[in-house]
Amino acid sequence: MIEPAWEPDPDETYRMAEVIYPDWLPPLEERADPEPARPVKADPFANAWTADRLMAEEFPPPRWAVPGLIPEGLSLLAGAPKAGKSWLALCLALGIAAGGKVLGEVAVDPGDVLYLALEDTPRRLQSRMGKILGDTPAPAGLTLLTEFPTLPDGGADAIRGWLDTRPNGRLVVIDVFAKVRGETPSGMSPYDADYLAMGRAKSIADNYGIAVVLVHHLRKMAADDFTAELSGTNGIVGAADTIMALKRPRGEADGVLHITGRDVDEAERAMRFDASTGTWELLAGAAIDHTLHSTRAAILTYLRQSPGATPKAISDALGHDRETIRRTCGRMADDGQLHRRDGGRYYPPDTSAVPGVPESQTHL
């Protein structure tokens, strides 16, 4: 029977050498190849809540960059090219940096703002700010850059460094998102790539408790749900806390800001752009009242006062051609701007204005 070869204990051999050559060898615990430490596994239940404890907890209310519109977290501000979204973003940045009111009526607290205008030049920014500010001094709390690294290539760390030195930081605007998202990792699905890119910006917003607004684009193809018009996959929509879509017909001053999100009420707000001052302001009343052409707007105004009127009654009251009013009412009903029932009577789109009609029937 062959005896197995004797193999010395490496640790014992090292200790013997340490005795013989004490000045040549480092201590055993400082060897170049120590046994790697085992990774410590985090307990996934370390931060678990029980339902009663969660309901008893008192959380601070969310901070708002623009009350009712832009809460802390990650927001998307999307629009078609030349719709005025960059003007809107710059108006908000200037207003928050100075404090006071934005959009003509919304009071905001002052705070430091970082604006990455990555599709502009310093000269164009100066021109636009001069138009918006007029005789008002430029706020020192607004930092502007026209060049910036992508988020995965140092941009995210740079934004964190800026926020670390500004405890009163309130808003970061990135115009546009496509300029900072970085390369898509090889082999990653488009959805996962979009969600990952959005997540880099969202982690900044969540960690610092501020609002981060990404200016983004809408597709050319319209959809019933405005969130489906955002360029990219549903990973864009899923990662955002708040989504705003600015829509303005070409050549018209009035537009609509569509809003939805986790901490905001879903709404459509009518807005008007003043080209002479480069400013946006919110308009009173329903958004539809400001976006219809004159004949449709007149019909809707009349029906708000006299719901259930027929085209004959409407034409008599407005003094318009009866056949024109009949055709226009039919088209408005097809477009969802009016409700039609009772053999040709029309009602405004507000279901509460249709007496005694179940909500499910008001869309017939």
Task: Tell me about this structure.
The chain has 364 residues and is an alpha/beta fold. The chain has 2 domains: 64-287, P-loop containing nucleotide triphosphate hydrolases (Rossmann fold); 294-361, Orthogonal Bundle (Arc Repressor Mutant, subunit A). It contains 11 helices and 15 strands. It has helices at residues 10-20, 51-56, 85-98, 122-133, 155-164, 190-208, 234-239, 288-291, 294-305, 311-318, 322-334, and strands at residues 64-66, 70-71, 73-79, 100-102, 106-108, 112-117, 142-145, 169-175, 211-217, 242-247, 254-261, 267-274, 279-282, 339-341, 345-347. The strands form 4 sheets. Strands 7-6-8-9-3-10-11-12-13 form a 9-stranded mixed β-sheet, sandwiched between helices. The chain has a two-stranded antiparallel sheet with strand order 1-2. Strand 6 (112-117), helix 4 and strand 7 form a beta-alpha-beta unit. Helix 3 (85-98) crosses helix 4, helix 5 (155-164) runs parallel beside helix 6 and helix 10 packs across helix 11 (322-334). The longest helix has 19 residues, at 190-208. Residues 353-364 have low confidence and may be disordered.
